[in-house]
Amino acid sequence: MLTVLYIILAVLIFGFLIFIHELGHFLTAKLCGIQVNEFSINMGPKLLGWRRGETDYSLRLIPIGGYCAMEGEDGESENPRAFSSAKWWKRLIVLCAGSFMNLLTGFVVTALLFGLGGYVMQTTRITDISPESALAEQGVQAGDELWSIDGRRLFVRRDLDLIEGRYNAADCELIVLRDGEKVTFEHFNMEKREFDDGAGGKALLYGITLGEYLRPSFATVNRFAAYECRDFARMVWYGLQDIFSGRAALKDVGGAVQVVDLMVQGGKESQTVSEGVRYVFYLGAFIAVNLAVMNMLPIPALDGGRVLFLLIGTVYTAFTKKKINPKYEVWINGAAMILLLGLMAVLLVKDVVTIASR
Hints:
Blueprint: H1 2-31, E1 36-52, E2 55-70, H2 88-115, E3 126-129, H3 134-137, E4 145-149, E5 152-153, H4 158-163, E6 172-178, E7 181-188, E8 193-196, E9 202-205, E10 208-210, H5 218-245, H6 256-269, H7 273-295, H8 303-320, H9 326-356
Antiparallel strand pairs: 1-2, 3-10, 4-5, 4-6, 6-7, 8-9
Helix pairs in contact: 1-2, 1-6, 1-7, 2-5, 2-7, 2-8, 5-7, 6-7, 6-9
């Protein structure tokens, strides 16, 4: 029964994120005076439909997407209120609005989770340090706040785990904040040593207790929600780096089915249903930021690719007084969409096979 609950919750979250993304395009298009021909939730055959003013609204069968169809979006149009006829900055706002709404959603959900006490807010301040720690031997003190490692900023306790392995642990630059002043350690050795793990055993640890606990307040909750969303975006960036550097293979990349499976498994492994629901919403916030970042990558068929074409076309027109033929963008976006759908199909099959083989 819980499995069904978490599956339904995950699907609803996905559907809402797509809806809020398209709503961003829709609202900004209306505000910028661009004609919207249709606003659809989901894809496929129409279940419900109505018309208000110049726009058709529809609810469709397959919960895998949605769209905001604007006049002149994919080519020239004689309509003075077409997307292609709008000023370049208006088109830029409309194209970026979907990702902004996803980012805003991730921030709001994360802030609510922190505010409701679902997650602990911990700083990077060292509250205790063992004299046998390599950090203590090199001059780090209790009360210091870890600021950055090799230029990678640390905001919250989890950041140390996030960027671990992405710097030369034996020779890095460590910056700490001590009494409001930055102290820089050059050629620092972030060596782990054997310490008690708190469970009666031994483990390789830094020998520090990191992270003071903060009581929720409006300012603190919003600050840590911003830190968390920044980390979500940084995780996406690190993931892309791993893919293109070869550190991650196709088997490490998952699609929507795997994400739903993670939500379900994490929810079921939680001690209580309320904790499971909070976990699912936490992953939902991560996915929202993930969608915002990924969709703004300068790749054809994504909003980021369309922004790139818009900026190139605007600069080209400013210098030559001519417009680039829109058919080239349509061809490139079409080809990229086919490749993107192919990748989604491959990930779908891989996810299904992986889950079925467990």
